[in-house]
């Protein structure tokens, strides 16, 4: 059975990406001449074919995208695993009004592929807890997500 391939997010994926959620981001590192994977959570679906996310402005992710804009985000949803392929661009290297220096990156989605291996389903999604001050974490998360949702 072939895995399902779409050109845009499904409604459940779009809904999940209206709030902070866990994803894996794959970029290509020219410095190391290899792919690299990072976990991110400040991701927002602008619409069913566009994502934006925030990372520290000095993250290697920013440099990787500037050199090679093809990216893949891995998302767990609806008992499966999805590969979201797209073309990334750095919208700004430093969003204003935040306590951290964060870059805002946009991804134009070119493909959403169900990549779960045959005969299996995800029975429990990835859960995580912030390990620093919960109130500070909640305040920062809210600020960053509001910036991602804005058209700045």
Automatic annotation (TrEMBL):
SUPFAM superfamilies: FMN-binding split barrel. It comes from the Bacteria. It comes from Thalassobacillus hwangdonensis. InterPro entries: Pyridox_Oxase_N, Split_barrel_FMN-bd. Residues 15-93 form the Pyridoxamine 5'-phosphate oxidase N-terminal domain. This is Pyridoxamine 5'-phosphate oxidase family protein. The lineage of its organism: Bacteria, Bacillati, Bacillota, Bacilli, Bacillales.
């Amino acid at each position: 059975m072939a895995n399902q391939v779409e050109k845009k997010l499904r409604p459940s994926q779009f809904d999940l990406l209206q709030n902070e959620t866990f994803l894996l981001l794959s970029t290509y590192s020219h410095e190391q001449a290899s792919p690299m994977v990072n976990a991110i959570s400040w991701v927002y679906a602008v619409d069913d074919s566009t994502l934006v996310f925030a990372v520290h402005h000095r993250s290697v992710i920013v440099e990787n995208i500037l050199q090679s804009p093809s990216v893949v985000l891995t998302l767990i949803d609806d008992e499966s695993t999805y590969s979201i392929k797209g073309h990334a661009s750095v919208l700004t290297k430093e969003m204003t009004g935040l306590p951290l220096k964060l870059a805002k990156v946009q991804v134009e989605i070119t493909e959403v592929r169900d990549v779960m291996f045959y005969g299996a389903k995800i029975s429990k999604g990835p859960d995580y807890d912030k390990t620093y001050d919960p109130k500070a974490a909640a305040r920062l998360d809210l600020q960053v997500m509001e910036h991602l949702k804005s058209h700045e």
